[in-house]
Design a protein that fits this description.
- Chain A is built from seven helices and four strands; from the N terminus they run αααββααββαα.
- Chain A has 256 residues and is mainly alpha-helical.
- In chain A, the strands form two sheets. In chain A, strands 1-2 form a two-stranded antiparallel sheet. In chain A, strands 3-4 form a two-stranded antiparallel ribbon.
- The longest helix of chain A is centred in the last third of the chain and has 30 residues.
- In chain B, strands 1-2 form a two-stranded antiparallel ribbon.
- In chain B, helix 3 crosses helix 10 and helix 5 runs antiparallel to helix 6.
- The chains are: A mainly alpha (256), B mainly alpha (422).
- At the A-B interface, helix 1 and helix 7 of A face helix 4, helix 5, helix 10 and helix 13 of B.
- The structure holds protoporphyrin IX containing FE.
- The site of protoporphyrin IX containing FE has 25 residues of chain B, from helix 3, helix 5, helix 6 and helix 9.
Chain lengths: 256, 422
């Protein structure tokens, strides 16, 4: 009996300490509507079709302003593209490099290249964007409280500013951005891209797809991690049961 | 032969080594036949869990260090390379990052165990003091480690914490400059923090060794808090406690793995996924959860120097707990009043932890002050005074005699019926 009391106490300590962690997630953000994501939960995987459509949205829309600093073209095999498709996508980009003669030159991209950045550096990005810096998107899902739900909400959260709000020059009203004034113009509009698989390109659809893609790019190891995790957690749970049985056997001749 | 140890091992190779360097005899004495009270509950698992976690941290840390670059212009990217390009780098890093939280979790339970069962009292004062030293070094190590990925929280956390020293009158500012190796947190700071982060865990091993050495002089305390009276009260450590510790270890690793594989960023802050930027202050600078109660104490005191002193004082107090407690009884099992105050202390620490995670506004200011006041009141007033006033319950004669509940003896035969028989 005592054993369970002590376990309960340990569990309470655990929960108590955990309860403090999410507390810092709150902030000035509006409550985010929860979406259902294919990659959520312990068994979730990336919806390949959605992630590929999402790459198309990134490629045709977001990549004009945002880089994917930590990602490589080769990562795209993780959303179900073949090696040939990836090579073709990479080759369609022109990458600045240094030639054999030591002079700067452009060459077609390779799968081993990082995604091409739209601007040479942050200053160039700011100069082109009215002083605002479009952040790197390769970690964006991890780098915002609310993660995928937040980025989806941001992309779909544009509307006309309330009449009593004074907007600064070049700023756009967005319900979910801190302070509600964001420098990014609404990037998505009905039919902004044409999907090869015929999916209607509504704003919500494109937002959902691009967030799925960005979630993959933020944590490309997700599927491998969860698959391995199921086996490892099961192993330790099983071992707990086994060692407990052995423990009872060993202790069976002790009065205590 | 003169000078050789008389080894009892029969295996010729082991015997040869053991005769010249009796490490096998020592292991056998300290971990094999070591007489251990037979009435431990599962709270006695946590020391072993902390030891295993320390080894996991060092093993993963060394592999991280092989791929990490301690330079402000490359640190963040090198961590991303570990996550994406190093084989199983994500696993190594997530074990290390979550391992820090697990380490503090088991250590805090371990400390609570010590407080509840009075393990700090004579003759185990030095053992307890070494434990507090371990806690301090762990905190320093974790703080330095959190700076290494060079995200926003790394940078601003380092700035806030190092700036605390500027509260010291006169020499404060020069000390901070000296700590930084410059006039702000910058590359020299990152470099020395990496060196210290690599060093301190090995210092920790040394102190842990002394901690265990001291334990093996006094012997373990036990849930009844009474001294071992003879061999009938003890069991050899192996196999009884090796197997009992293994049960806890497997369960612990299952929970640990649950975080690593299914919620690896649960303890992390989103802001630390943004590269450090000295020009942009995050909306809130929050330390890792295990430092939050101390951070709350710091912010609950209206003066900066006062806050710093109280924060360090809150840990410093732990050193003198063996002398603050005046009760002759160790275990809270027989301290009907103190037990509740200890529960209150745990609540105060949890509340302080929550306060530390929130902006000091509204109700949080009040809660922070109440928690801080109780924390100090507990150790400085309740512990010394209550020990004199409280009437402890009658202690059992010995560990192997049944516990006297409410003073009356148990029906005969009850003790011969262990509940756990298979
Ligand atoms: C007492 C044991 C230790 C503790 C409590 C500890 C704690 C931490 C923490 C909290 C982090 C930040 C994790 C993150 O958010 O990414 C970290 C990072 C790091 N640690 Fe440790 N550590 C320990 C031992 C070691 C050892 C022994 C080494 C090297 C031999 C090491 C090498 C590193 C490296 C290279 C990083 C940066 C990479 C990263 O951020 O993931 N650690 N440590």
């Amino acid at each position: 009996m005592m054993r369970w009391v002590t376990f309960a106490a340990a569990a309470a300590a655990l929960i108590g300490s955990l309860a403090t962690a999410p507390a810092r997630a709150e902030g000035d953000h509006m409550a985010l509507p929860k979406q259902s994501w294919s990659f959520a939960g312990p068994f979730g995987t990336f919806d390949r079709a959605a992630a590929q459509r999402g790459f198309q949205v990134y490629n045709e829309v977001c990549s004009a302003c945002h880089q994917l600093h930590h990602a490589y073209y080769r990562d795209l095999t993780g959303i179900g593209l073949s090696a040939e498709q990836v090579a073709a996508i990479a080759a369609s980009k022109s990458i600045s490099d240094i030639g054999d003669d030591g002079a700067p030159m452009d060459r077609p991209g390779l799968p081993s290249d990082h995604f091409k950045a739209p601007y040479a550096n942050d200053l160039a990005a700011r100069a082109a964007q009215n002083g605002a810096l479009p952040p790197d998107l390769s970690l964006i899902i991890k780098a915002r409280d609310g993660g995928a739900d937040y980025v989806y909400a941001l992309l779909t959260g544009y509307s006309a500013a309330p009449s009593n709000m004074k907007m600064s020059d070049g700023m756009n009203y967005n319900k979910y951005f801190v302070g509600n004034q964001v420098a990014m113009t609404p990037p998505l509009s009905e039919g902004r891209v044409t999907y090869a698989d015929g999916t209607p390109a509504s704003v919500n659809q494109m937002a959902k797809d691009v967030v799925t893609f960005l979630a993959f790019i933020s944590e490309p190891e997700t599927e491998q991690r969860k698959a391995l995790g199921v086996r490892i957690v099961l192993f330790f749970v099983l071992m707990t049961g086994l060692t407990y049985a052995v423990k009872r056997k060993v202790w069976s001749d002790v009065d205590h | 032969m003169a000078g050789l140890h008389k080894s009892e091992f029969t295996n010729p190779v082991i015997n040869w080594v053991d005769s010249r360097l009796p490490i096998f005899t020592m292991m056998q004495k300290e971990y094999g036949v070591f007489p251990t009270p037979k009435n431990f509950n599962y709270f006695w698992n946590f020391g072993a869990l902390a030891m295993v976690t320390l080894m996991i941290m060092i093993a993963t840390g060394i592999f991280l260090a092989m791929n990490y670059t301690a330079h402000t212009s490359m640190a963040f990217d090198s961590v991303q390379r570990i996550m994406r390009d190093v084989n199983y780098g994500w696993l190594i890093r997530y074990v290390h990052a979550n391992g820090a939280s697990m380490f503090f979790l088991v250590t805090y339970v371990h400390i609570f165990r010590g407080l509840y069962y009075g393990s700090y009292k004579a003759p185990r004062e030095l053992l307890w003091i070494l434990g507090v030293v371990i806690l301090l070094i762990m905190m320093a190590t974790a703080f330095f480690g959190y700076v290494l990925p060079w995200g926003q929280m790394s940078y601003w956390g380092a700035t806030v914490i190092t700036n605390l020293f500027s509260a010291i009158p006169v020499v404060g500012e020069p000390i901070v400059t000296w700590l930084w190796g410059g006039f702000s947190v910058a590359n020299p700071t990152l470099n020395r923090f990496f060196a210290l982060h690599y060093l301190l865990p090995f210092v920790l091993i040394g102190i842990v060794f002394l901690h265990v050495a001291a334990l093996h002089v006094t012997g373990s305390n036990n849930p009844l808090g009474i001294d071992v009276k003879g061999p009938q009260d003890t069991l050899p450590f192996h196999p009884y406690y090796t197997i009992k510790d293994s049960v806890g270890l497997c369960l612990f690793l299952a929970i640990f793995a649950g975080f690593v594989f299914f919620a690896p960023n649960f303890f992390g802050a989103a802001d630390n996924e943004i590269p450090a930027n000295p020009l942009v202050t995050p909306a809130e600078i929050v330390p890792e959860w295990y430092l939050l109660p101390f951070y709350a104490i710091l912010r609950s005191v209206p003066s900066k120097l006062g806050g710093v002193l109280m924060m360090f004082g809150s840990i410093g107090l732990l050193f003198v707990v063996p002398w603050l407690d005046t009760s002759p009884v160790r275990s809270c099992k027989f301290r009907p009043v103190y037990r509740w105050f200890l529960a209150l202390l745990v609540i105060a620490c949890i509340v302080l932890g929550m306060v530390g995670a929130h902006r000091p506004e509204g109700i949080w200011v009040l809660l922070g002050r109440l928690g801080t006041i109780y924390y100090f009141l507990h150790f400085l007033v309740i512990l010394p005074v209550l020990g004199k006033l409280e009437r402890p319950l009658p202690l059992p004669e010995s560990i192997s005699k049944p516990v006297l509940r409410g003073g009356g003896p148990l029906p005969s035969g009850a003790a011969a019926k262990p509940m756990e028989k298979a």
